[in-house]
From TrEMBL:
Domain Chorismate mutase per the UniProt entry, residue ranges: 1-90
Catalytic reaction annotation: prephenate + NAD(+) = 3-(4-hydroxyphenyl)pyruvate + CO2 + NADH; chorismate = prephenate
Coiled-coil intervals, chain numbering: none
Species for this entry: Vibrio renipiscarius
Species lineage: Bacteria, Pseudomonadati, Pseudomonadota, Gammaproteobacteria, Vibrionales
Swiss-Prot/TrEMBL GO biological process terms: chorismate metabolic process; tyrosine biosynthetic process
UniProt keyword list: Amino-acid biosynthesis, Aromatic amino acid biosynthesis, Cytoplasm, Isomerase, Multifunctional enzyme, NAD, Oxidoreductase, Tyrosine biosynthesis
Pathway(s) the chain acts in: Amino-acid biosynthesis; L-tyrosine biosynthesis; (4-hydroxyphenyl)pyruvate from prephenate (NAD(+) route): step 1/1; Metabolic intermediate biosynthesis; prephenate biosynthesis; prephenate from chorismate: step 1/1
UniProt cross-references to PROSITE patterns, sorted A to Z: CHORISMATE_MUT_2, PDH_ADH
InterPro entries, sorted: 6-PGluconate_DH-like_C_sf, Chor_mut/prephenate_DH_T, Chorismate_II_sf, CM_dom_sf, CM_II_prokaryot, CM_T, NAD(P)-bd_dom_sf, PDH_C
Name of the featured protein: T-protein
Family: In the C-terminal section; belongs to the prephenate/arogenate dehydrogenase family.
UniProt-recorded Gene Ontology molecular function terms: chorismate mutase activity; NAD+ binding; prephenate dehydrogenase (NAD+) activity; prephenate dehydrogenase (NADP+) activity
């Protein structure tokens, strides 16, 4: 038996080496594709091409008895690496006549990411950090684009310091709230203004498939090239009114972060053995635990700024607390029927999204399970 297994394992190792060689060849081809895209100003992410290629490979896999989902999983992971590789080829500069790009807060992680992306696109990038305000006039002199990316509680104050920009300079911010910063920019600057919110962190390997929200301010025709530049980087653009954006962020960010904070706070007081919890966890609970733990591995000032950024956030969290209290009343009353009725109402509200989310989560859970190493 041992001899048979060793022979088969040797054959598997040989096939794995062939796969490695093919992956290396594919990445080399991707690098050439990136050079062509860079030369012609094509986005690194082409959704139609990706969808057509995956459909074709799934069909081919099925014909030869390979599970279609297997080849899709392999290709999606390979494409993620490919997008990161294409980024290194640089990007076409859509506005070569633009004067300098100044990143206010460019020494931070998100500012650094955008600074690198502009540099890869051939723009002259300058950084105005917190220690550089004595040189602000010099750094901002003749700027063509100013990007403000500082903590939320500092944003409006920093914007107020930017009142002497050239009239044709584009002023934008990367803050996760939009109404107040956008109004502050409109008050401080007479030229083009746009509010931006990158819906990702600074640790993304590329901007492919990442969302950048934008809220129009003034002089939309003057910053269309900037939005197209983001698209070339691979980002998907979402236009929205500033107040509508902030209302959505109340649910997506403030409430979600606060419930994770409260759950983590409760866990710390219960003081379970985390290793034991992980040993007992199904993939879905492990993911949930990871998302809560992830919050506490980051800067508390950032999340505090997000949660405390508006009265609307606090009122939303209070309404959630009231709803939680109503659910507790069902629990205290041992009223299973009331629980089922409430459950069904929420299920009806989700409608077809329930099945969509079920399918999406199953794929995530498979990936999470694959990455687990059981001792």
């Amino acid at each position: 038996m041992a001899e048979q297994l060793n022979t088969l394992r040797d054959q598997i190792d040989a096939v794995d080496k062939q796969i490695l060689n093919l992956l290396a060849e594919r990445l080399a081809l991707v690098e050439k594709v990136g050079e062509v895209k860079s030369e012609h100003g094509l986005p690194i992410y082409a959704p139609d091409r990706e969808a057509a290629m995956l459909a074709s490979r799934r069909a081919e896999a099925e014909k030869i008895g390979v599970p279609p989902q297997l080849i899709e999983d392999i290709l999606r992971r390979t494409m993620r690496e490919s997008y990161a590789s294409e980024k290194d080829s640089g990007f076409k500069c859509l506005n070569p006549e633009l004067r300098s790009v100044v990143i206010v807060g460019g020494k931070g992680q998100l500012g650094g990411l955008f600074g690198r992306m502009f540099t890869l696109s051939g723009y002259q990038v300058k950084v105005l950090g917190s220690q550089d305000w004595h040189r602000a006039e010099e750094i901002l002199d003749g700027a063509g684009l100013v990007v403000v990316t500082v903590p939320i509680h500092l944003t409006e104050g920093v914007i107020e310091k930017l009142g002497q920009l050239p009239d044709d300079c584009i002023l934008c911010d990367l803050t996760s709230i939009k109404t107040k910063p956008l109004q502050a920019m409109l008050n401080a600057h007479r030229g083009p203004v746009v509010g931006l919110h990158p819906m990702f962190g600074p640790d993304v390997p590329s901007l492919a498939k990442q969302v950048i929200v934008y809220c129009d301010g003034r002089g939309e025709e003057h910053y269309q090239w900037l939005l197209k530049q983001f698209a070339i980087w691979g980002a998907s653009l979402c236009q929205i009114d500033a107040s509508e954006h902030d209302h959505g962020m109340t649910l997506i960010q403030a409430l979600r972060h606060f419930t994770s904070f409260a759950y983590g706070l409760h866990l710390s007081r219960e003081n379970p053995n985390i290793d034991k919890l992980l040993q007992l966890s199904s993939p879905i609970y492990r993911l949930e635990l990871a998302m809560v733990g992830r919050l506490f591995g980051q800067d508390p000032n950032l999340y505090g700024d997000i949660i405390f950024s508006s009265e609307e956030n606090i009122e939303m969290i209070k309404r959630f607390h009231h709803c939680f209290g109503e659910a507790l009343e069902i629990l205290d009353g041992r009223d299973k029927q009331a629980f089922i009725e409430s459950f069904d109402k929420v299920s009806d509200w989700f409608g077809e999204y329930s099945q969509q989310f079920m399918s999406e989560s199953q794929n995530l859970l498979k990936q999470a399970n694959d990455s687990i190493h059981r001792r």
